[in-house]
Automatic annotation (TrEMBL):
<keyword id="KW-0472">Membrane</keyword>
<keyword id="KW-0812">Transmembrane</keyword>
<feature type="transmembrane region" description="Helical">
    <location>
        <begin position="44"/>
        <end position="70"/>
    </location>
</feature>
<keyword id="KW-1133">Transmembrane helix</keyword>
<feature type="transmembrane region" description="Helical">
    <location>
        <begin position="12"/>
        <end position="32"/>
    </location>
</feature>
<feature type="transmembrane region" description="Helical">
    <location>
        <begin position="82"/>
        <end position="99"/>
    </location>
</feature>
<feature type="transmembrane region" description="Helical">
    <location>
        <begin position="105"/>
        <end position="122"/>
    </location>
</feature>
<protein>
    <submittedName>
        <fullName>Uncharacterized protein</fullName>
    </submittedName>
</protein>
<feature type="transmembrane region" description="Helical">
    <location>
        <begin position="129"/>
        <end position="150"/>
    </location>
</feature>
Amino acid sequence: MEKGWLSRKLQAAFFATSMLSIYLSADYTIAIREQYLYELGTHFLSWLMIYFVYSGVVILIYGSLVSIFIEWVDRTFIQMAGWIYVLIHGLFGLPFGLISSFNGAVIGGAAALTYGLIDYFIRKKRPRFFTLPSIPLIVAVAIAFILTGLSPEQPPFTRQDAIVEAHAARDVEYDHFPKEEGTWTSVINGYDVQQEVTVNEIDNEVYIVTFRETWEKGLDQGEWNWSYEVSRGAVASKGGREQTPGYYQ
């Protein structure tokens, strides 16, 4: 192997992994755009990282070992034409993709072709180290910006939204706490019962939702309350006062 072969293989692996991950994450983000309507750029970058990790392991280990073997054959026995050198890389990518499906074989072959092409290009042209790796980074950022621009603006996260999230966090179906800010009253087993939901905004689109229940029957009185801090996509229990209502006993 010539000097700098390890750097060349690493650059080829990074480029092939990045372009494969960009394609897969963009394709998946577009497929789920109806389900995740907002912040498509963020979803794209998240899936890009996931695909990069998983495919990167395969390409770095399997792809690099195959490429080293092909180059050894090329230098030791047969001096291949450039297109043959690249094509053989692609052929070695097909069987690995066939493990999943025909489409997987095509994708695997394309990734292997990309690896071989970049490896051969660096071997012959010797560009600066950061020239080729910067290309997928620019492409990924551009796609993320485009998807972000295509995403509609999220509506405000309201007090009512916070109540809905807090109810979902409690996951209780048998009580009568209102589904909106307000109070429910009734008589249960002779007890005057009041169940109340209040909301306090402590920061921009960050709320404290409190469930408060009181009961009274003569001198028998009690109170139960529990609070949640709710923001978009996050609910945290803040604690409260636990007491079993008298009408349960």
